[in-house]
Amino acid sequence: MAEKKKIRHQALVSAEDGSENQGGELSTREAVADQSSKPLRSMDASDACIVIRFLKDMKILLLNKVFVVNVLGYIAYNFVVGAYSYWGPKAGYNIYHMKNADYTFGAITVVCGILGSLSGGFALDYMTSTISNAFKMALQVNSRLLYTNNELFLKAKA
Predict the structure, then answer these.
(1) Helix ranges (DSSP H) in the chain
(2) Is the separation of the CB atoms in 62 and 68 below 8 Å?
(3) pTM recorded for the entire structure
(4) What is the pLDDT at residue 18?
């Protein structure tokens, strides 16, 4: 029993200092250094199967209309939020001479995001949430918001 502990201790010590074990095996450090010095391998059949499977999965995803519309909507949403977060405060400072436009636009973004998510969820629950109803509701809400924003902009300009 004591001999097994002694052998285990010797193996741990030799692995820590990077020397070879009694049996001529490489330590952990030497094995890692040996692996990193090997050249990169070329693509083999298993890698080709992974790529083919990935392309098949992408084809399935891109043919799914609901997925594509959701991704495109999310891209547009992120573009608009990014544009407002970057240029909104600049317009507030330069055009409207606001003192703390950053906090104002941030607060508006947070409040509208929470209220929009909650009201959209409740509206879809009320409308028997189907995809066609969701698209109709989104179209109506967005067109009303654009009309309201244009009216407010024209009033502020006058």
Answers:
(1) 2-17, 28-36, 45-63, 65-94, 101-126, 131-157
(2) yes
(3) 0.44
(4) 47
